[in-house]
Amino acid sequence: MHPASRIIIALDFENLATAMHLVKQLGDSAKFYKVGLQLLTAEGPSVVQALISAGKQVFLDLKLFEIPNSVAGAVRAAGQLGVSMVTVHAMAGSTVLRAAVEAARPFPHLKILGLTVISSMREADLYEVGVKVSIAEQGIRLAQLATAAACQGIVASPQEVALLRRILPTELLLVTPGIQLPGHLKNDQARICTPEQALDAGASHLVIGRSISHSENPAATFSAICEQLVVASRQKKSSLLLQTQT
After folding, report:
1. Longest dimension (CA), the chain
2. Closest Cα to residue 74, out of 43, 108, 40, 42?
3. pLDDT value at position 188?
4. Is residue 204 predicted with pLDDT exceeding 70?
5. Count of the separate structural domains present in the chain
6. Which residues lie across from 193 on neighbouring strands?
7. pTM (predicted TM-score)
8. CB under 8 Å to 57, separation ≥6 — which residues?
9. Residues spanned by the domain of 155
């Protein structure tokens, strides 16, 4: 898979016009976009429809955490819109996760992703809500719960990806937020890394927001990230080949 297909650009904007301006700037090379709560609340399904009409894939980051019937209804609505991925909070439990997976069955293009621990949380935040284990332990527990419920992917911070990749089925998608370019200021995400680090750890898709959207030249930044990932992938393959020959 080419890096351009593995990068999901976060459209964390207040309105559709601003979001679609970025989409236009990035052009045909950028194929996948995240629509989160802010933009969806401001614009409703029209933002998803605009992206689908432009030939883009949509990662609908709803973090669904409701009763099974409500979650199933939201998943069906996402499928009807043509969304490619939708997130369900694994903390909602296996019944909710299975309801989401079942609701997605009529839509072969739609993948259900189980969200583990949001990337803004630290272990102290887990303890505050009564979870007395490490982020890694909680991430493993929730990822395995989502996998057992037949979710097609997991959302986890890049710092847990390598661990999850070792223990989860190889075909499972691992989508990672918290991706920032070297030298960029930290934001409200606590567990972050660079695109190359996330790819090397085993992520299948990288969610990148402000590093691209707040760039002076978003198209050039996107292109540079893609090229860096191509180089990193080649280097990793060469390293693995050398290891097998020695």
Report:
1. 57
2. 40
3. 55
4. yes
5. 1
6. 179
7. 0.91
8. 31, 32, 33, 84, 85
9. 3-245
Task: Evaluate the CA torsion angle 11, 173, 31, 78 in order and state its sign.
Answer: negative
- The tokens for 231 are 């180089």
Separation of alpha carbons 196 and 132, rounded Å: 32
CATH number of the domain within which 48 lies: 3.20.20.70
- Answer yes or no: is pLDDT of 246 > 90: no
Specify whether 237 is catalytic: no
N-term to C-term CA, the chain: 28
The answer for 169, left when phi > 0, alpha when psi is -120 to 50, beta otherwise, is: beta
- Residue 78: in which H helix or E strand, if any? helix 68-81
Q: Give the pLDDT of residue 114.
A: 98
**Tokens, residue 15:** 């309105």
* Catalytic entry in 34, 63, 132, 236: 63
d(CA 83, CA 19): 17
Rounded Cα–Cα distance for residues 129 and 115 (Å): 17
Tokens of 127: 């303890």
Short-list 194, 188, 198, 192, CA closest to 12 = 188
CA-based nearest residue to 142, from 170, 163, 116: 116
